[in-house]
Design a protein that fits this description.
about 210 residues, Pnp Oxidase, Chain A, 2 domains, seven-stranded antiparallel sheet, globular
Length: about 210
């Protein structure tokens, strides 16, 4: 028997149909609860796809209330800060404006999912709302909301993500050791460690 699932009917034979309450929970605009969740979230995952179908998911993080702001019931805006300059997701958006967002609040299992269409702006009348430590965003990603809904806690419960007893950050090499092996092999390991452990690495996040 072929184990690969190729059609939605085959998929539904295994998973079944969603309960109507779950199937119909999507909304096409933001309400007050969505706004509170978004503006209480310090972390967001941003999914995009290029013209060729290639995909990217990028993490975004800022103080809650400055990561993203709700402009009205159909629009929200995300700030872009200094980073590695790859801009994979933004390059995708220039060719394909469709975007998917998952907003996360530490300690909570439920998440908020927003899908829509994005445009990139150099500046906007509301830029000051996204200012952090005197720094305005380099780029603003403005999203026109097409679909929004809350997602349940099961993934977080299964992974025990917020349970410190499940944490083991020392189980893999440090970020400096990984960078030295995969990205900075031309530099002495001690220099790479010094870079990641330098106070300026954290204090220069918005410079």
């Amino acid at each position: 028997m072929d184990a690969q699932i190729r059609t939605e009917s085959e998929l539904r034979e295994i998973l079944g149909e969603p309960h109507p309450r779950i199937r119909d929970k999507d909304r096409d605009r933001l309400d007050d609860v969505h706004r509170i969740f978004i503006e209480s979230s310090p972390f967001c995952l941003v999914a995009t796809s290029g013209a060729d179908g290639s995909c990217d998911v990028s993490p975004k993080g800022d103080p809650a209330g400055q990561l993203a702001v709700v402009l009205d019931e159909r629009r929200l805006a995300l700030a872009e800060r200094p980073g590695n300059r790859r801009a994979d997701g933004f390059v995708n958006l220039l060719a394909n404006p469709h975007i998917g967002l998952i907003f996360i609040i530490p300690g909570r299992g439920d998440t908020l999912r927003v899908n829509g269409r994005a445009r990139l702006l150099r500046a906007a009348p509301y830029s000051d709302l996204l200012e952090v430590k005197g720094h305005r965003p380099q780029i603003i990603c403005e999203v026109e909301v097409e679909q929004v809904f809350f997602h349940c806690s099961k993934a977080f419960l299964r992974s025990e993500l917020w349970d410190p007893r499940s944490w083991d950050p020392q189980s893999i090499p440090s970020r400096a050791h990984i960078a030295h092996a995969s990205e900075r092999s031309d530099q002495p390991l001690d220099d790479v460690i010094a870079h990641y452990e330098s106070p300026s690495y954290a204090t220069g996040l918005y410079a």
